[in-house]
Amino acid sequence: xxxxxxxxxxxxxxxxxxxxxxxxxxxxxxxxxxxxxxxxxxxxxxxxxxxxxxxxxxxxxxxxxxxxxxxxxxxxxxxxxxxxxxxxxxxxxxxxxxxxxxxxxxxxxxxxxxxxxxxxxxxxxxxxxxxxxxxxxxxxxxxxxxxxxxxxxxxxxxxxxxxxxxxxxxxxxxxxxxxxxxxxxxxxxxxxxxxxxxxxxxxxxxxxxxxxxxxxxxxxxxx
Length: 223
Fold this sequence. Notes:
It is a single chain. This protein is of the alpha+beta class. It contains seven helices and ten strands. It has a six-stranded mixed beta sheet with strand order 1-2-10-9-8-5, with helices on both faces. Helix 1 (6-13) packs across helix 7 (208-219) and helix 3 crosses helix 5 (71-80).
């Protein structure tokens, strides 16, 4: 996460039952847990947003041999053994700018409900767009007046829904919100961003916090 993710942090911590540990990309190289066991002992849900796969798989000391355990595999095993995973879009998410986020073909992609392109996957929508909710009854989406929403998003990562995944919202046939169960765990994608610029006016919507709180609680199997 970067500084702009304070919007998401503020949304989640508005619920007193949720505790958030925040790491920048630089901090993740040095401090992100090395094993699924370490992740499970500290967290119920892992959220990745605008952090490239290199920031997790590589360590601060690039010349140490070996550097350490594969932390992308650790995330996949964390989900398979019962944890929750949320990947949020942006220029450094999924495929990302010039394909530099590079989650295609990684263990993290295995744990997600979508397939990721091996190239630049950004879709810019400067005129703004609203996604179509296709499952309002899902616990993540429930109790939110989506039909009355007036916010506009400005972009997203173009992804492909896996065959057994559950689509919650789409735009032009592309998945924007999707979930699935992986092993004993759960994962979710939000193909747009949670912070400016792509998030547009979504951060100003009165149900912005409720949406993210419900997402995290579902991933943590609290609902």
